[in-house]
Amino acid sequence: MFHGNGDWKGLPPWLRIRVYRDAIDCIRGVRAATFFSGVDLTRLADAAPAGDPPHELALRLLLQALQEYAEEADELVLTIADDINTAERHRTRLRAYRGADSDGGRPRLDRIFDTLYFGPSRHSRLLQAADLLTYMYLRRSTTTERSARAEMANRRIWRAIAPTVQSETMWPAP
């Protein structure tokens, strides 16, 4: 959508931006809570425990943030993630983490309901919404816009997203 590729090819930037902003407004309208987690790849080689791939570290950070949020809200969390080839490994790790609080003070993950569900984002409006939020989060964190108009549009979109953000975590912590 953002770059005008695929189904968005030929649509003018102003229209793609408008659709993006409308989608963000819909997400806010359902009172979504947004959580971001990531791994600083430039620092990973020096700081990572042996054998922990970046995606797994980011997912663990995300699950911990969701656990804390769910504890405060006295709720359970159902997780749905974009399909990846390591889905079964992540489900297995969740089972190992669930209920365990002895691993370096790691929070319990007993508020994560059932298991981790994975599916193709093209079939899930929830995953598409997460993709839109994540894209803008990464764009504002990693890209210097060449155009003042693009920068202004991104700032407007981020201002709509920002109130939904409950947690932003980066590993290792700066």
Description:
- The protein has 174 residues and is of the alpha/beta class.
- The protein contains 6 helices and 4 strands, in the order αβααβαβααβ.
- Strand 2, helix 4 and strand 3 form a beta-alpha-beta unit.
- Helix 1 packs parallel to helix 6 and helix 5 packs across helix 6.
- It is globular, with a radius of gyration of 18 Å.
Break the fold down into its secondary structure elements and pairings.
Blueprint: H1 13-29, E1 34-39, H2 41-47, H3 54-73, E2 77-82, H4 87-97, E3 112-119, H5 125-142, H6 148-161, E4 165-171
What would a concise description of this structure say?
50% of the residues lie in helices and 16% in strands. It has helices at residues 13-29, 41-47, 54-73, 87-97, 125-142, 148-161; strands spanning 34-39, 77-82, 112-119, 165-171.
Output the keywords:
174 residues, alpha/beta, two-stranded parallel sheet, two-stranded parallel ribbon, 6 helices
Tally of extended strands? 4
From the helix content, strand content and strand pairing, which structural class follows?
alpha/beta
Strand content range: 15-25%
Major sheet, described briefly? 2 strands, parallel
Pattern of helices and strands: HEHHEHEHHE
Q: Can you tell me the overall shape? A: globular
Strand order of the largest sheet: 1-4
Number of domains: 1
> Rg from C-alpha positions?
18 Å
Which percent bin holds the helix content?
A: 40-55%
Return the average pLDDT rounded to an integer.
Answer: 86
Oligomer: single chain
Question: How many helices in DSSP terms?
Answer: 6
**Contiguous runs where pLDDT drops below 50 for at least 5 residues:** none
